Amino acid sequence: MAETIPTDRAVEIVADGATLHGDLAVPERARGMVVFAHGSGSSRHSARNRFVAQTLREAGLGTLLMDLLTEAEERTDVYTREHRFDIDLLARRVTAAADWLAGELAAPGKARGQAVPPARLGLFGASTGAAAALMCAAKRPGVIGAVVSRGGRPDLAGGMLGHVTAPTLLIVGGHDDVVIELNQKALEVMTCVKRLEIVPGATHLFEEPGTLDQVARLAAGWFAEHLRRT
Prior knowledge:
two-stranded antiparallel ribbon; 36% helix; Rossmann fold; eight-stranded mixed sheet
């Protein structure tokens, strides 16, 4: 029988001694769960990621959007940018979020609310958060079932790229030349099921009309295909 977790609630996750805030949303009869890894100074309030998350929920997937930095770290990062490129830190916190959510889904009778079928989790990473998501996937092969990167920097995952076993979709804007090249090189290193999708006419932030819709549809399709019930 599927375990249950409450729908649509604010959550707190402890990682590295820091308390991180998140928004958990579970649609009716959710078919799986996706954790978002924000990057480059974004938080759980990122309009782009919230747009993608809404599309995933409409496709029957639950979402967890969380801050990877505390409020104090965010205030410092605005000036120093020291945390947004600390990939090890971000990866530890994404992993803590995935572990927390997996525990919520697995604990019998721990919570009551919306039924969610047991499944491996998906990760959606943007910018530097994509590298953190890939490092998490490499560390938790039995937990992470699929990864999607939007305008990501998978190269920043370094030697962990070759250890990723989860099917991975890399999405890059057609006008984001430097990031396209970095993603192509990362793809050569990765040995898992993998694909690079280039969205025509899109720049790094996918601000052009219709381009973010394409990202959301591609992500929903990838997770629907690769997130399987255990």
